[in-house]
Model the fold of this input.
Amino acid sequence: MEMAYYPGCTLKTNAKSFEDSAIKAFRHIGIELKELEKWYCCGTVYSIAQDNLMYRLASIRNLIRAKEEGFDKLVTLCSICYNTLKQANLMARNDAESMSKINAFMDEEPDYGGEVEVIHPLQILKERMWEIRSMVKKPLNKKYAAYYGCLLLRPAEVSIDEHENPRIMEELIEALGGEAVNFPLKNECCGSYNVVANREAVIEANYRIITNARKNGADVIVTSCPLCYFNLKDMQRVVKKFYPDFVELPVQYFTELMVEAFEVKQ
Amino acid sequence: MNWLLDKVEELSGENLYACYQCGKCSAGCPMVEQMDLLPNQVILHVIRGNEEVVDAKTPWVCAQCYQCGVRCPKEVDITKIMEALRLIKLRKNVNHIKLEKVRKNLPQIAVVSATRKYTG
Done:
């Protein structure tokens, strides 16, 4: 089965390992992630000001590209792209007034009304846990803390699971043979783009989240967001300078666990 | 007349008077340790028309994670109120960061987000 895939900016650079592992893992379970022929940055953060439709145009254009290529579903790996495209798509479906302005403004584009469905790969996996279980060749043998962060879960109307206590990633970890540990900070924010202007906020969040995962027995933190990955993994060496007692913890994308457990060849 | 309240309500689309100051937003905010005003205090300042709130650190520390909004028992989306306060400044052409001072080697996702949130 072929599904339209929207990469977003960071999947082609810092998060290349996320894209590579996702394409391999999904091919292994029979889903070909077909990259859109044309795509643009989604805008990263969904514009929540009532009067700012301009910042939502990029997301809508991407959804139009998917529709033009004949797809009714659009898969995106990055949590931030997922959130931004999904919220823009909800606006396209529910807010006719804003959409009439956007459609009139983008008169070079065909009108859009939310026909494409934005989905996150974890939602696809949820329907196929039995199949995933049967494909495991080398069961995971570590303890994992599933970290969702904010944008897979909030606002509630775009959540991929129950937003206060999601279970999808834990189910996947268990299906792959690993042990999912209890992790109370799984839906806390990592500090997000504060890393640009206020690193202290990210250092504090990193210390709190990693230490909590470790105290709950985790060997690895699992994520689905390139920015969480950067803030939780790359920032650990900075955190270590501020907190001498800090013990580092590996961070992996959920798709990397799939590749490991399925023993997918190159 | 309280221009600040009017402007925040216009930009956010939220009813600030719905807030009954229970503090659940502040209790759950993952960035609260970095803030000079608690999110519920920000609402109070806007309602009272205290214009200094526009210069507070709080809206700039908010990472738009939506935790406050999904937990609010009165369904006030505080995330949008923080955005409104940021925009009141940004729309006067006052950028919160100097782009030339941004560290190298950050992922694009961080830089693009920060540009959207911290510059007008």
Q: What stands out?
A: The first helix of chain A runs from residue 16 to 28. The interface with chain B takes residues 8-10, 13-15, 41, 43-45, 47-52, 55, 78, 80, 149-151, 154-156, 163, 187-189, 191-198, 200-201, 204-205, 226-227, 230 of chain A (CB under 8 Å).
